[in-house]
Amino acid sequence: MFLSIRTLDGSSTRLDAAVLDRLRSRLKGDLLTASSPDYESARSIWNGMIDRRPALIIRCRGSDDVVQAVRLARDHRLLVAVRGGGHNIAGNAVCDGGLVVDLSPMKEVRVDPAARTAMVEPGCTLADLDRATQEHGLAVPLGINSTTGIAGLTLGGGFGWLSRRDGMTVDSLRSARLVTANGEEVRASETENSELFWGIRGGGGNFGVATSFEFTLRPLGPEVLAGLIVHPYDDAERVLRFYRDFSATLPNETAVWCVLRKAPPLPFLPEEWHGREILVMACFHAGPIAEGERNLEPLRRFGNPIADVIGPAPYAGWQQTFDPLLTPGARNYWKSHDFIALPDELIRLFVDHVGRLPDPQCEVFIGQMGGAIHNLPPDATAYPHRATRYLMNVHGRWNDPSQDAACMAWARELFNAVTPFATGGVYVNFVPEDETERVTNAYGSNYSRLVALKDRYDPDNLFRMNQNIRPSGGAGREAPVPQVPVTG
Q: Distance between CA atoms of 270 and 306, rounded to whole angstroms?
């Protein structure tokens, strides 16, 4: 008996029963193959466009399991993918025919409220961490969808509602443990393996498999001021121009993001607006409620909104506000840009393209950056885009595979139309699988330093199922054929 499994060069090798039995005896977790009862659920990830069948899945229950998995991949030169939350848009958490190192069972969070720190395992989601830290009125700057995995978010940089006050997720990272390509677990911090620590703060999973993260926590909540202002689509251009000028005046504690889409059947919206195009402004204040109300008053008074549902809310609950619009299983394709400014012509392009949405789930969101993100220079961490003031993500999202071409074409058309206004940079966690050429844009002037780090820690490019930083020796990514067309 043997298991045929894919290797780094695209061929296959055989793992005999003795190898698998020996591995199984050393694991606290489980080995899954295509015949295992949990195999189908274990290979499914958030983006329904990704349909890959690994030969072997190792469900890790601790760092020792990760060490065993990486050593297996190293010794047999296996194609290996690493799954944390399985939320990555490019689908790199799973590979065809290879090995998946599944970290999702590793979900422990340990909070030290006196030291204001948290130790977090890589299978945790944002909801897991928020739940644990908010018990003590503390928080880490995280993303906006609570089902997102902590590991992928952090390794790519991480930003969300708290980032204008507290910086990127990686700016709160104190240390991490990871298993490198040689199968050894190391600790990285400002004082231990400091260059590796620099690289994992934005460099993705290129240098090893993270087994834990240590974060600095800051006071927050548990109640914050947050909510939505909804405007008619016909007023979107005028409101966005006001938003542009207003947002430039906001203190770091306050953030306003914009979403252009068709209205879902939200209970606070009049039924006649359901399914019609709208502009949503999502507002958040990380400070005293009264202070936030004063900051947001001019925005709330402007125009003729359909609804204004801003008020005190539990922070952990606000973090889950957009979860119903981002449930797993739908087909997703994203296109993203960074901007320094929002000139009138750029706003007109946004509004025009949202008037031609190919599916009710498609949307464009504009995230307000700046604030504390700007406090560090571009080379302080691997994430370099500190000057970005607004980040656009085109969410192509639909359920019917027959809509693939139309929805992807719409996303690409908007992306191409607004490219002249963009910085050229991109947030690496928003890069889909057909944009590998944009990896250098994601890292800018930091890219050559990251290549040197890759040469040191992973010269054979074992960890290539990611937005890959190739070692200078040229070891490439022998990965599955992209699931989406690469033309256009």
A: 8
The 3-class secondary structure across 84-118, one letter per residue, is CCCCCCCCCCCCCCCEEEECCCCCCEEEECCCCEE
Q: Is 308 left (phi over 0), alpha (psi -120 to 50) or beta?
A: beta
The model's confidence at residue 486, banded by pLDDT at 50, 70 and 90, is: very low
Provide mean pLDDT across the span 144-151: 96
The mean predicted confidence, pLDDT, of the chain is: 95
Pick the CATH number of 109-219 from 3.30.465.10, 3.40.30.10, 1.20.1250.20, 3.40.50.300: 3.30.465.10
Going by C-alpha positions, the residue among 17, 30, 26 that lies closest to residue 100 is 30
**Domain range 223-430, its CATH number among 3.40.50.300, 3.90.1070.10, 3.40.630.30, 3.40.462.20:** 3.40.462.20
Alpha-carbon separation of residue 349 from 140, 279, 334, 340, 395 (angstroms)? 35, 14, 17, 16, 16
pLDDT given for residue 487 in this prediction: 30
To the nearest 10°, the Cα dihedral for 93, 120, 58, 50? -20
Give the C-alpha separation, 178 to 188, whole Å: 8
Mind giving me the DSSP string for 420-441?
GGS-S---GGG--TT-GGGHHH
Element (H, E) at 453: helix 447-457
The C-alpha atoms of residue 189 and residue 196 are separated, in whole angstroms, by: 8
What number of other Cβ atoms are within 10 A of residue 48's Cβ?
Answer: 17
Which pTM does this prediction carry? 0.95
Listed by start position, the domains of the chain span 2-102, 109-219, 223-430
Interior angle at CA 280, CA 278 and CA 283, nearest 5: 170
**With the CA atoms of 233, 325, 311 and 220 taken in that order, what torsion angle do they form, in degrees rounded to the nearest 10?**
-130
The pLDDT of residue 485 is 33
Numbers of helices and strands, H then E, in the chain: 14, 21
| CA atoms of 172 and 218, how far apart (whole Å) | 9
Q: Tokens in use for 487?
A: 């033309």
449 contacts 424 by C-beta, under 8 angstroms: no
C-alpha distance across the termini of the chain, in Å: 46
Give the pLDDT of residue 475.
72
Asked if 120 contacts 138 with a C-beta cutoff of 8 angstroms, the reply is no
**Pairing status of strand 173-179 against strand 99-102:** unpaired
Q: DSSP state, 402?
A: G
Residues 159/262/338/432 CA torsion (nearest 10 deg): 80
Q: Which CATH architecture has domain 2-102?
A: 2-Layer Sandwich (3.30)
Distance CA 438, CA 28 (A): 39
Strand partners, 2: 16
